[in-house]
C-alpha cells in the first residue's frame, strides 16, 4: 500500500476529517469512528509505518512517543486513574484493518480479560 492510499495518512494530511483530540509534531490522536468503549481514541505517528513491529524496528523513539501520547489521552479523557487499555493490533489475523500503526486507547468501562 502506498501512503497516498492510506486512510490514516489522509487524516494526517487533512484530506479526510477526524475528531482530533491531541496533536504533536510527530503524532495525531483522534476518536475511533466505531468505538468499543466510552473512551476509544487512536494514536498514530504522522509518519507511515504499517505495523507496531515495523515502527519498533525503524524508530523506537517514535514508538515511545506514540505510547506517551496514549497515556496523555487517557489523562485528558479522565480514565488514567481508573484504568485503561492500550492495544496495538499487528496483522490481519490480530484484527488490524488499517495498515498504518495505531494504538487504541480504551477506557471508561470494565475491560475483561482475555480480550478476544
UniProtKB/TrEMBL annotation:
The active site is at 102 (tele-amp-histidine intermediate). Residues 7-116 form the HIT domain. This is Histidine triad (HIT) family protein. GO terms for molecular function: catalytic activity. InterPro entries: Histidine_triad_HIT (IPR001310), HIT-like (IPR011146), HIT-like_sf (IPR036265). SUPFAM superfamilies: HIT-like (SSF54197). Gene3D superfamilies: HIT-like (3.30.428.10). The lineage of its organism: Bacteria, Bacillati, Actinomycetota, Actinomycetes, Streptosporangiales. A motif (Histidine triad motif) lies at residues 100-104. Pfam families: HIT (PF01230).
Amino acid at each position: 500500500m502506498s501512503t497516498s492510499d492510506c486512510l490514516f495518512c489522509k487524516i494526517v494530511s487533512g484530506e479526510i476529517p477526524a475528531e482530533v483530540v491531541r496533536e504533536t509534531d510527530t503524532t495525531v490522536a483522534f476518536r475511533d469512528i466505531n468505538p468499543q468503549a466510552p473512551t476509544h481514541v487512536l494514536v498514530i505517528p504522522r509518519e507511515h509505518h504499517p505495523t507496531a513491529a515495523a515502527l519498533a524496528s525503524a524508530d523506537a523513539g517514535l514508538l515511545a512517543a506514540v505510547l506517551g501520547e496514549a497515556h496523555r489521552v487517557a489523562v485528558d479523557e479522565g480514565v488514567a486513574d481508573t484504568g485503561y487499555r492500550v492495544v496495538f493490533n499487528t496483522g490481519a489475523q490480530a484484527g488490524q484493518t488499517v495498515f498504518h500503526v495505531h494504538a487504541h486507547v480504551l477506557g471508561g468501562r470494565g475491560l475483561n480479560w482475555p480480550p478476544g
